[in-house]
Every structure is written in structure tokens, then in C-alpha cells.
Amino acid sequence: MAGGYCVKCKEPREIVDPKQITMKNGRPATEGRCPVCGTRIFKIGAPDGAAKPAEPAAEAGEQAKG
Ligand SMILES: [Zn+2]
């Protein structure tokens, strides 16, 4: 489970609805919400579910349109 630090609660919180995003420098990051106050939590690194790092849009075929 992805965990982050809520700056509003000033405590480590579990990230609700974590989403993997890519920062401007190309590094993966996780963005979600605090389950207590709902403040947006930002954490450097990919979510726990993502085993492999975010590949750039180089290979296609992962999603087959039907
Ligand atoms: Zn909070």
C-alpha cells in the first residue's frame, strides 16, 4: 500500500486513490489524497502496485484496441 506524508496532518498517511504521475524531470511520483483530511499527498516514487518503472512512450502494444 502506498504511503505518504500529509503536510496538513503532519503525520504519515496512507495515500488514498494513488495515481502514478511523472514529474517534469521524468521521475515517477505518486499523487493521492489523505484519508483523514483529504489533502493532496505527493510522494516521490512509483506506487506500490507498479513493479516496473514508468517506461517512456516508446513501445506500443500494451493496450490492444478492439
Ligand atoms: Zn491529512
Task: Write the SSE topology.
Elements: E1 3-6, E2 11-14, E3 16-22, E4 28-33, E5 40-44
Antiparallel strand pairs: 1-2, 3-4, 4-5
Zinc ion (ZN) binds at residues 6, 8-9, 13, 34, 36-37, 39.
Structure commentary:
This protein is mostly beta strands and 66 residues long. The protein has a domain at 3-44. 0% of the residues lie in helices and 39% in strands. The protein contains no helices and five strands. Strands 3-4-5 form a three-stranded antiparallel sheet, with no helix packed on it. The mean pLDDT is 80. Zinc ion (ZN) binds at residues 6, 8-9, 13, 34, 36-37, 39.
Quick summary:
The protein contains no helices and five strands. With 66 residues, the chain is mainly beta.
Keywords:
66 residues; mainly beta; two-stranded antiparallel ribbon; 0% helix; elongated; binds zinc ion
Radius of gyration: 14 Å
Number of helices: 0
Helix share of residues? under 10%
Largest sheet: 3 strands, antiparallel
List SSEs in N-to-C order: EEEEE
| Major sheet strand order | 3-4-5
What is the end-to-end distance? 32 Å
Structural class: mainly beta
Shape: elongated
Q: Beta-strand percentage? A: 35-45%
Q: How many β-strand runs? A: 5
What small molecules accompany the polymer chains?
zinc ion
Overall pLDDT confidence = 80
